[in-house]
Amino acid sequence: MQQDILINWAPHESRVAVVENGAVQEVHIERSLERGLVGNVYLGKVVRVLPGMQSAFVDIGLDRSAFLHVADLMSSVHAKHADPDAAAAPLLPIEKQVFEGQSILVQVIKDPLGSKGARLSAQISIAGRLLVFLPQDDHIGVSQKIPLEQRQVLRQRLLGLAHQTESKGGFILRTNGEEATDQELTEDIAYLRKTWERIRLASTTQSSKTLLHQDLNLLQRVLRDFVTEDTQTIRIDSREQFDMLLAFGQSFMPSSVGKLVHYKGERPIFDLFNIDEDIQHALGRRVELKSGGYLIIDQTEAMTTVDVNTGGFVGARNFDDTIFKTNLEAAGAIARQLRLRNLGGMIVIDFIDMQKPEHQSAVLSEFAKQLAKDRVKTSVSGFSALGLVEMTRKRTRESLAHLLCQPCESCQGRGIVNTARSVAYNILREILREARQFNPQEFRVLASPAVIELLQEEENHHLAGLSDFIRKPISLKTEIGMGPEDYNIVLL
Hints:
It is built from 13 helices and 24 strands. By secondary structure, it is of the alpha+beta class. Strand 4 (41-50) and strand 5 (55-59) form a beta hairpin. The chain is globular. The N and C termini lie far apart (72 Å).
């Protein structure tokens, strides 16, 4: 697999596209006024403890209080690492661990999403180039993406390096640290310990609801998290940011520096692979497949549903083969769309019904193969009794649609609005209701052009009949700026 990373930078916005084998797989956007919070460490203040939910709300200085569950307090991780069998033991109730008004050191693990506040953890972790530092824990671990036979050797090696001093804290070796030298690991350990010491000292001098540590910006995270051995180039269209990344890379990610390229082309860098066009497509419900089939993707707050349809695909010899080939292509397309749209949480996929078990197995195998390329953790079940595939994808940041779009003012995100006739009948009912309570000289209706036109023409006899019944005149006035469902009834 050949991977290229394109970076488009402007003072107000950074955009990153990950392109694999010529196709856009991921788009990441960070706006200077809307920067994500994941990884940030705060000194928070507990504002409410909910024993029934075994959780607490913590004020970290945002518009909404953040959410802290008992499983994300330090007691749970200490019990787990102290005794392997303690994971099954009940946790100490949250009301015995925190109290209202308490100052507490917390880290954001999920950004605010919709009406939900940020998700917090009291188990602080600080990511470096090669390692993740666990300052409150002595656990030494190795990324599960590294082959099992190498993990124990690497763990013993890291154990020796981490305990060269009497400083406490545990570490997890990241995937890109597999081939690191002892010197590189030692330097990362020193950097992470220094960062933690700065956070710890600040927590003793700063007031609550204070940001103590902010994670790297998007461009810096590209070098830390996105670059793999498959990455050929990292092209960036800003000389200033290129120089910044070059200096940052030389200090922390020297192996990535040689892949950095300052893009000087006349065409916008995202035009090279039609990135903007793919972003627009990723905001729509329908995704076309090359075979003629298509996907319908609907995203709600609770879950995302994906429906696979054959469309106009008739290329196979029989109907079973047509369905199988469409589902096989859809498996790859769905995996790509999950990454491109950054969809997370519960996802339900309705593949076209397949009669042959070997076809189902092949589609699941292809789906798992495509999901293996995803940097985000996923979990997939088999086909249910209803022929659905349920899966989860870890959600840490808002989806592309939530980042770039907002609910329609007319339909408030429902995707549909009442017909002009339905609105007209709502108006007639409300006039009757008002006439029973008040005694104005006249009722005046203000509504959209479509509704007023309907009342003046097709529904004119119903309007006249109501006027005769309540013995009051009803006048109509068009309001150009009103939405299709909006109206006002003025009592004169």
